[in-house]
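Standup notes
- HV: blocked on the assembly model, inputs below
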Amino acid sequence: MRTEDDLRAALTELESQAPDALAMLAAVRARTSARQVINRRRRTWSLAAAAAVSVAVACAAAILSGAFGRVMHNSPPANTGDAAAVLRQLADKAAMQPVPAVGPVLYTNDARWGQPTGKQHNGLLDLPDELDMEQQWVSAAARYLTETSPSEKHLHGSVPSSYTKFDPANNPEWNWHNPATLPADPLALRRHLLSEPGAKSGGKSGAKAGGTRLTIILSPLTRDQTVLMNALQFMSSEPLRPAVRASMLRLLADIVQRSPHDFAVLGTVIDRAGHRDIAIAGESNEIWAVSALAPSQTWVRAHTTATQLVVYFFDPVTGGLRAGEYATCSGHVSTFAMASARCAPNSYEQFGVIKAVRSLPKKASTARTYTLTPYVFPPWQPVIP
Amino acid sequence: MTFEEYTSWRLPAVLRFAAVLTGDRALAEDVVQEVLIRAHRHWARIGRLDQPDPYIRRMVVNEFISARRRSWRLVPSGYGPEVDNRVTPDHAGGHADRAELFTELGKLPARQRTVLVLRYYEGLSDIEIAEVLGCQPGTVRAYMARALAALRIELKPGHQKSTALAKEDS
């Protein structure tokens, strides 16, 4: 007979089979979409690409005919105009919309698809997919979240519902988010978007692990990048007054105009919920270098940057933001037209319901969601050398 | 705590736990990678937890169990080694029975193996293990009894607990 100590010793011995942490981080990094970095607000938009708009548009067409064509499965790019002009047209549409109710509680309900993994399991290719649905209620006094994965609920579990109370009198985050007090004046709105409480503009974090120091470096955001990301965040999660939404779109147009090489209009597309939208793509050059401090005390960059392409889908009638798609690409926009350039879509998010409600629910909601079209993942194309 | 801070701080411990749980370096890689991708996506919520560790541990366990369940979904890709990559460590220390124990551990059903790892590696109680697995403590005890019987482990009173993730805290 064996003893419990034998078992304990055997299990502890298996620790030696632990995978390498640096390689794991690099692998996770390669599979993680830009939107997922720190609450979707740490995306760094490249402002230095040297490509011309025509190259970007050509590249967008190439993407649409390739892997992306399976995702945005309808309509080749019909509008090849400049993105700033399109955003201003959307702003004009937004300004004419009726004023939504902006109540004491904000409610959002959206759905997200995960990405294909492309993993090999003993010579077999795993083809998982994942659909998450999230409901969120936020008020000055509390935040309530539920998240479910209907497709694989019993396999992977769900993020449990969480209920977080705040001090209503001292909640700078709510004060900043409250759409009822968002300024409509573009300059004031820009200042507001730049003043998010507790926002971090970059930096690095690290810890010693087995003689190697792991450090993940987050590149700082420029002011334009901060405005861009925060505006898109507002539009994806909060009911906005028409004048505020219009100002946000005009702020985005100004940013695009300042760096036109990084954005392209993809034209009219059909999103995953079946809406006819206008798609605008932007290059996001997210710096997420992982460095290792070897025993020699020499810093080594273990993983470099990857280009992220972000596509936003706008309602052409109201200017509302309906969806976002994210892809990892093998080069910058300027290289997309080349045969060697590849993009692999890795996630998609449909912003389904954004409205104000009277109160937070007291327990888990069974409220339903919307119907989405079946999702067929395109073949995985490794894009990170 | 940000995702980056968490991974910098806890990833080595999570990887060790996954290695012990799976007994297979490649499977441990897959499990942790899946968990981190999923955790990253949900970090806005997970990061607000006082203790993300138990939640991540539960994700690792669920992923390990589901990885075995969904093996039927694998599609042949036409290449790659069709070998069992299960690890059998070298036992230079003279533990003659160790290799056989590893083999028998590898043959245990996923839940039974998980119960053993959570008890003898993580040092969790029956109730804590039940929370991780989403079952009753009595079920945990049943899994434990079957697993120990299969491995021919003799129980002794007042067994000593060990911890792994907790070691990182010290």
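- HV (later): unblocked. The longest strand of chain B covers residues 75-76. The CA atoms of residues 122 and 163 of chain B lie 4 Å apart.
- Next: hand off to the docking folks.
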